[in-house]
Amino acid sequence: MTNLAQRMKLVKPSPSMAVSQAAKALVAQGVDVADLGLGEPDFDTPPHIIDAAHKAALAGDTRYTATGGAAPTKDAVAHKFHTENGLTFGHDEIVVANGAKHIIFNALLATLERSDEVIMVAPYFVSYPDMALMLGGVPVTIATTRESGFKLTPDALEAAITPRSKWLILNMPGNPGGAVYLDSELKALGAVLARHPQVLILSDEIYEHIIFDARTFISFGKACPELQDRTLIVNGVSKAYAMTGWRVGYGAGPGWLIKGMTTVQSQSTTNVCSIAQAATVAALTGPQDNIARFRSAFESRRDLVVAGIAGIKELALDPPDGAFYAYIECGEIIGKKTPSGLILADDADVTKFLLYEAQVAAVPGEAYGLSPYFRLSTATSEDVLTNAVTRISKAIQRLTRGPQ
């Protein structure tokens, strides 16, 4: 007997967390696993940020803050948007929550009616469809291609919009595909959205600072200011400042939406940890040199993995424009047989094969809505990545032709 709500039948646990847990189980058995399942920087949080948190705790900054964020935190977020993105937001247009994922959840909870459609671009972040389903919405997926850089086109967007469309979720740089949009590409999407005033835009920009090849990041809000009254920009400190465990995300958008999201938060988690907020102020307003250091390391790691995969003829990977993932096409090994006799029927089988026969933890493309691919996180050391690519290559060489 179960008393779980019916909606829970629609929701899956996070695939990336599941992969990481399976990898940890093997490690506990003494197996040497290269765990490339989770997207988490391997760098330590910069010392000045930790110092700010320590000082805040010693100073007694350990009580409730305003639900949507303490005034200094909102000041720091407004400063970031103004100086980095050329956008101006007041305190009533900013909300701080427990990670960027929490911002997205609150936005959908505050706005979705049953059967409202949420448009998302595949490959997408694994939580987007499950959040929509959990809240009574209907995920609508637009598939992209490796050849297009995993980018949404205006024609595809136009074709997906219906009278029930409530949200379009963009993610740039994209997890897992690494897509980065040009200003002109965002404006073209904005022109489509201008014809459909019922569609809200959620621009998930959490990987903003992890962008490669001297590209310039353009926020959707900057590219399409005419849509500001229905655009929510989502960001946070987790990726850029190596602060995943601090759990601080922030959103900026129209006051009516931010007010609704703040009300949702007031009846759930209340405020973000006061000490973590102090750390966030230091991150956003303090020295920014670590961003360039982290980005340089992530770009070198991307290059290493791209070069390594290029040496495996059965796989395909174009250099991602940003984020720290490799979304690798694996169609040529679907249907092949492993040394244990398993026929690789899909990319889920591929990742099982990689985990148990190559000792490399990866996430199947089906989790991101686009197959046949698998995702590797490149947010780890070059030694680990080199070893992982070598293991993958050797494992694939052991595959044989399946039944004809």
SSE map:
Elements: H1 15-28, E1 34-35, H2 47-58, H3 71-85, E2 94-97, H4 100-111, E3 117-122, H5 127-134, E4 138-143, H6 154-160, E5 165-171, H7 183-194, E6 200-204, H8 220-223, E7 231-236, E8 249-252, H9 255-266, H10 274-285, H11 289-310, E9 325-329, H12 347-357, E10 360-361, E11 363-364, E12 373-377, H13 382-397
Parallel strand pairs: 1-10, 3-4, 3-5, 5-6, 6-7
Antiparallel strand pairs: 2-8, 7-8, 9-12, 11-12
Describe this structure in words.
The protein has helices spanning 15-28, 47-58, 71-85, 100-111, 127-134, 154-160, 183-194, 220-223, 255-266, 274-285, 289-310, 347-357, 382-397, and strands at residues 34-35, 94-97, 117-122, 138-143, 165-171, 200-204, 231-236, 249-252, 325-329, 360-361, 363-364, 373-377. It is an alpha/beta fold. It has two domains: 6-44 and 290-395, Aspartate Aminotransferase, domain 1; 47-285, 3-Layer(aba) Sandwich (Aspartate Aminotransferase, domain 2), CATH 3.40.640.10. Strands 2-8-7-6-5-3-4 form a seven-stranded mixed sheet, with helices on both faces. A three-stranded antiparallel sheet has the order 9-12-11. A two-stranded parallel sheet has the order 1-10. Helix 4 (100-111) packs across helix 9. The protein is globular, with a radius of gyration of 21 Å. The model has no long low-confidence stretch (mean pLDDT 95).
